[in-house]
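Handoff note, outgoing to incoming analyst
You'll be picking up this chain. Sequence as last confirmed:
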Amino acid sequence: MEKSLFPQIHTFQKIYPEIKIKLQHGSTPHIIEKLENGLIDIGIIHLPINNNEIHMTDYLTISSTFIVGEKYKELANKTLALDEMLNYPIISFSKTSSSRKFLNQIFQRKGLCVKPDVEVGSVELLIECAKIGMGIAFVTRELVLRELSKGELFEVHTGENIEKRQIGIITKKESPLSISANKFFKHLLE
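Most recent structure output, in case you need it:
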């Protein structure tokens, strides 16, 4: 991952300790809705989106992968075809999330329909569900590198080429950023 959000926030807070940052999390549609309603100044979302009221700036590129905990560790020792994967519980985000739509597309390209057994609303919960053995989770690989290296999670290879995804920073076109928000926006892009 070229850039990461949390180190950027940390360095920003050191440079501008008087500026307070409030982080909120949600699915791409919820973040867009908050931006449109003026509840947030800047959003970080999965691209692409189609919205003429929003200005998008590329931020970073991520990889997606399937992971399991100790219970399904044996799946990491072989290549598991997508149709075979459907024999195991699948953990994913809710239907409206961009990650879930991306997961659906991966299976649809093979003529398969994925119906997750567990739907969660946060990355932390997704990772924890995989760790405790609830099934195979579809995640952003960069978010689980530490757990993979520690042997807390195991990567399941499908033999499929899962394309990388783009993360973008969004702002509302017709609403100029405050001085503080503009400083943060520029810092993120450094």
